[in-house]
Amino acid sequence: MSQWIGTANQSYAPLAIEEMRRLLPGATFAPLAAGEVFLMNCQQEREETLEAIHGQEPIFLRHIQPVDRLIEISGSAIDLEGLSDMIRHARLTFSDKRTAVHIRRSAKSNFHYSASDTKALLDAVLEEIDAEPVVQLPEVIISIYAAENVLYVGFASPEQMLSDWPGGAVRFQREEGQVSRAKFKLLEAERTFGLNYASFKNALDVGAAPGGWTSLLLERGLRVTAIDPADMHPSLMQHHALTHHKRNAADVKLVANTFDLLVCDMSWSPMLMSRLILDLQGSLKPHATAIITIKLMHRKPLQTIREVKERLGTAFTILKAKQLFHNREEITLFLLKK
């Protein structure tokens, strides 16, 4: 038996739970934050559960936290004392390790201490037991979820939790002059899929306007061919490495075997998007990478995703499908041309 806290994007927890039911027969679920955070009780032990999740990673599960300790919330300093004593008792888990503390809370929690105050206290305890408190690149994470009357606490590596951000909520700082927030989706895809955009040379950005994704690729030193009948942001138009075809993709003639990266973030139906990408495959080099968002416009998103993967699978190897934190009513696909 094992217990876990799962997190999905707002309103997508039911889909994450549906995926988990298929992976882990006999699991039961209870909501902690409506549509986003849920408690999962598994018949499988911890290692078996992790093996199932990582062997076929769910699309809609953003973050998973084991529940190793339960601490009843008193609403007083006793809560912090309980957390401190818990870390001391588990000192062998953290000693000599880079350790991060993540705190999340439900809106109705009776845990009255801020995340910053709690982290400051627990960081001091970690130093006391010869652990190294860190924010970035931890080896182990102490993840705390404050429900209404109980603290759920778990210890695991970032890889096991699927993210090194609290609850998988990846945060990027908005830059001065940033073309659009859509850039964050492509940045998160780079982290999630283990990519380095600077390793590519020629990118095709379909449905590029106003240029959020194009701007990131230009910053990384790529030559970018952007296709969109709408205008690109004025700050991009004079860039020496940008070619803008101001028309629909179906009307553009592209040279075969030209691009080693294709990106697409258009608000089209999933089937139309699939057909468009297949029509453009001839312009891609063998084994080119593609990052594509698929809009979830139908009542049966899991069925839609299966159909899209089947269609694109005729020309691409689908390496991963994931709803990223910066996705909204969509998922992101990571593909390689066959």
For the structure shown, list the relevant keywords:
single chain, 338 residues, alpha/beta, VC0802-like, Rossmann fold, 2 domains, 7-stranded mixed β-sheet, 5-stranded mixed β-sheet
Structure, described:
The protein is an alpha/beta fold. It has helices at 13-23, 46-55, 78-89, 91-94, 115-128, 158-161, 182-192, 212-219, 270-280, 301-312; strands at 2-7, 28-33, 37-42, 63-66, 69-72, 98-105, 132-133, 140-146, 150-156, 202-206, 223-227, 242-245, 259-264, 284-295, 316-322, 330-337. The chain has a seven-stranded mixed beta sheet with strand order 12-11-10-13-14-16-15, sandwiched between helices. The chain has a five-stranded mixed beta sheet with strand order 5-9-8-6-7. Strands 2-3-1-4 form a four-stranded antiparallel beta sheet, covered by helices on one side. The longest helix is centred in the middle third of the chain and has 14 residues, at 115-128. It is elongated and about 70 Å long. α3 runs parallel beside α5, α7 crosses α8 and α9 runs parallel beside α10. It folds into two domains: 2-168, VC0802-like (2-Layer Sandwich); 182-337, Rossmann fold (3-Layer(aba) Sandwich).
Structural class by secondary-structure content: alpha/beta
The CATH topology of the largest domain is VC0802-like
Assembly category: single chain
- Helix count from the secondary structure assignment: 10
